[in-house]
Predict the 3D structure of the following.
Amino acid sequence: MSTESTESTDLDHVEETTSSPDAERVEGSEAAAAAAVGDRTEEERGDVASGDDTGAADADVATAVSDTPAPAAKPSRRKALEAEGDVAADFLEVLLDICDIDGDIDVDIDGDRASVSIVDSEEGRVPRRLVGPDGKVLDALQELTRLAVQTETGERSRLMLDIAGHRAGRKAEIVEIARGVIAEVKETGSAVEMEPMTAFERKIVHDEVLAAGLRSESDGVEPRRFVVVLPASG
């Protein structure tokens, strides 16, 4: 199994045995993740990781100001994010080996967080069951990977995990939907309520609305929390 990094990250050192320290992290993280994943993912617990909401209350407002896209990471922060990606790649490599699943791992930095993707390899396709209905299995694996990174680094991780391009494809779909709603709000001058979305999807909408010069807020309670797009103030 090979590992590729778009940030020139050398992941060839990944151990291929289940007795490696990474395998031990798998075992150690599974117990900790059982409660967290079995309940709700980090994004679902108030959208804190995604920047969608403050997490202080269900009715809190995610305004355009609070959802400003994160600037590029500073050099010192960038190194920390690269380290997160390395740890996550090692962990996922061992996990795939244990499960005897094909797939390559790409590591990148997206804004202010590490981004790790499991993609199809020359040996075979990544099983789509790792994404699961509505991405629920993907969300659980992302939470497990974050816990593994936190165990290794001692720092809370906000990395994003994608499998077989699921999040990337969904992001493109949400962007198109958001742009349609933005056009409607600009034309009518009236607020528009969107369909319920995940925290990941709502963050995409907030970013698009902000870029268009309008306002947005999140309303409702999980799992039917949604975005309201409003005209620009004044």
The first helix runs from residue 21 to 39. The beta strands are 3-5, 104-110, 113-119, 160-163, 192-193, 215-219, 226-230. Residues 2-68 have pLDDT under 50 and may be disordered.
